[in-house]
Amino acid sequence: MIITSDALRDRAEDLAGRLLELILSRGNGHPRTYGFEYEFLPDRVLLPTDLSSLRELVLSAGCCRVGEVVHIGDLGVTFEPGGQIEYISPVFTASDDEAFRSTLDRISVTNSRISSELGIRYIGTGYIPGRYSAPLLLTADRYSRMHSRFMTVDKRGPDMMKGTAAIHLHAAMTSVDDLTLFYPLFCRLARGRKLGMSDERRAIWDATDRSRCGLPSVDLSGTAISMLTEICLASLKVEELSSSKPFMNLPDAGFGAFLEHLTTMFTDVRFNVKGGTLELRTLDSIPIESFPSIWKYFIDVCEHPGQMG
User: Which of 9, 146, 301, 309 is least crowded, fewest Cβ atoms below 10 Å from its Cβ?
Assistant: First the structure.
């Protein structure tokens, strides 16, 4: 099937319009809310039996489970393919210092319990070498296909999946103007030293399925819909995991399938349609005691975006 450039752009524009509508339908307003996803790497290579024990321990501490996420109060906990533990924060306003500190305390308590009861110490660091050939602990179709692709595309994908950890920072999108303002801002932050990747982790990302990583070519002076169109256009050209074909060659794939496809993009900045947020995904994981100052900087930049040079 031959797809003309006009037809491809029309499809991208349609997807962008639907994506914009979905992002703005999440009911975000002012005061703006923020959140984070905080990953920690295990100090040793984990086996499937370790993951089973970890899940049991976390479930015993949690009040409910939704899919793969266990909720300890309003704190979500899940795991990544190399055994990384990921904590999903509740939402905070800029002034919610007490709730933010309480969340960090619960993360520390959970990590300490895992260390004392299972002998697995979780470390706040962006990369631990030697995990390329470690077992793939999440074997759902999505992860298995991704890992198989990474074994043949570029060079560092398995390191990325199993040996890296990040902190993703979220800001709620409340209007079209927010998208126009914050997407360029987050792209600049992604390339800065304060919230960008370390050189070591950037080298891994640069050699991990380049069609899925980095930043798509987007005119950052454009409108929200034009920027989303460029993002969708780039994503349409990326291979969809289950079919091993570029998504643009799947003419019958619906909007839901495209949203799932977007979750397999590992770009430095990404829209999260579930929460109607924009994610900055570049910050390396760090020791938890170092995070409050980084969080304050992120909040300050978002609350006063015009002051960033």
Answer: 309
